Amino acid sequence: SSTSSSTSGSRSTVASPRTTSRPSSWDTFVGGIDTSSVTILWAMSELIRNPRVMKKAQEEIRAAVGEQRARVQPDDLPKLNYLKMVLKETLRLYPPATLLLPRETMRHVRIGGYDVPAGTRVAVNAWALGRDPASWGEDADEFNPDRFEAGARHGEVDLHGAHFELVPFGAGRRICPGMAMALMNVEFALANLLCGFDWALPEGTKAEDLCMEEAGGLTFHRKTPLVLVPTPYVPPSAA
């Protein structure tokens, strides 16, 4: 249903929450499928190239799950601090969208010596921000989840838009509404992939030969498919 009001002979209609929430929910689910799968692929790409990081993440996950269960449950996710660091580092290097949705300036502003007139369309390059040596240091292009460890230089940096060097979901009032769902889905899927299997490259393929080029497009896809070989994990007590 809708709520109607009349003012000076004119009639306006305000849509009910049910009318507006359905398309918003649909956009969140559909828009999150592609970006979530892309993030998982990039995470696995970097993990297979960094066996120390993969081993550390797997040990954390398997310790949280225990040997009596084969799968990660949602209740396990708050315990997986290192996995969250892996995900954060993945989103720093490979934001789902290189350019955030464009905005329009409401008034004339001057930023960094540049005049930006009112009505200018502005797009934020999340990819460039995440790799800026001025913010991240000389190893800005390297995959290193340890940079987010508590007490480290970037230990307090989060994904919620308060730190502008890392804004894969945007910031402010128009931050991505599906961020919480996307992070939970990616973390849950990645945790189960790492918990249930050990991973390797196909025979004859070396980690340093793995193509890490990005394809063009709105979503940050890999240029070539990622091919990995899974081996079901068997806990020591069951071996």
From TrEMBL:
Cofactors: heme
Pfam families on file: p450 (PF00067)
PROSITE patterns attached to this UniProt entry: CYTOCHROME_P450
MF (Gene Ontology): heme binding; iron ion binding; monooxygenase activity; oxidoreductase activity, acting on paired donors, with incorporation or reduction of molecular oxygen
Iron is among the record's keywords: yes
Gene Ontology cellular-component annotations: membrane
Topological category with respect to the lipid bilayer: Single-pass membrane protein
Biased composition (Polar residues): 17-26
Residues given in the record as heme binding sites: C176
Intracellular or extracellular location(s): Membrane
UniProt-listed SUPFAM superfamilies: Cytochrome P450
Region (Disordered) location: 1-26
InterPro entries registered for this protein in UniProt: Cyt_P450, Cyt_P450_CS, Cyt_P450_E_grp-I, Cyt_P450_sf, Cytochrome_P450_71
Keyword terms: Heme, Iron, Membrane, Metal-binding, Monooxygenase, Oxidoreductase, Transmembrane, Transmembrane helix
Compositional bias ranges of the Low complexity kind: 1-16
Recorded family membership: Belongs to the cytochrome P450 family.
Annotated protein name in UniProt: Uncharacterized protein
